[in-house]
Amino acid sequence: MGIAKFLIFIFICIQSIQFDAVYAQSTYPRKSIRIIVPFSPGGANTTISRIVGEKLTVSWGQQVLIDNRAGGNTIIGTDALVRSPQMDILYSW
């Protein structure tokens, strides 16, 4: 009987540790979110990225900024992605 109580005690301890780990996590987007579109505004890429941005804003609860950086055969937009600060969450379209 002693080993059964010990195993139940160990099982309860493991379960409580797992539940604490789940509650300790923070919500995902804690930083600002920016989608860089390396094409001129008004095209299909901008329209689709704005639709996706609206859906992400609703589901994540964090504002999504759509940033058009046209020119240089998409090099300007890619350069803006590479040189951006690490404080933002960035996506390139």
Protein architecture, described:
- The chain is of the alpha/beta class.
- The chain has a single domain (27-92), classed as Bordetella uptake gene, domain 1 (D-Maltodextrin-Binding Protein, domain 2, 3-Layer(aba) Sandwich).
- Helix content is 51%, strand content 17%.
- The chain contains 3 helices and 3 strands, in the order αβαβαβ.
- It has helices at residues 2-23, 44-60, 75-82, and strands spanning 32-37, 64-68, 88-92.
- A 3-stranded parallel β-sheet has the order 2-1-3, with helices on both faces.
- Helix 2 (44-60) links the parallel strand 1 (32-37) and strand 2 (64-68).
- The protein is elongated, with a radius of gyration of 23 Å.
- It starts with a helix and ends with a strand.
- The mean pLDDT is 79.
List keywords for this structure.
alpha/beta, D-Maltodextrin-Binding Protein, domain 2, 3-stranded parallel β-sheet, elongated
Secondary structure: number of strands: 3
The major beta sheet can be summarized as: 3 strands, parallel
CATH class categorisation: Alpha Beta
Shape: elongated
Strand content is 15-25%
- Helix proportion: 40-55%
Spatial gap, N to C terminus: 63 Å
Total individual domains: 1
In short:
Helix content is 51%, strand content 17%.
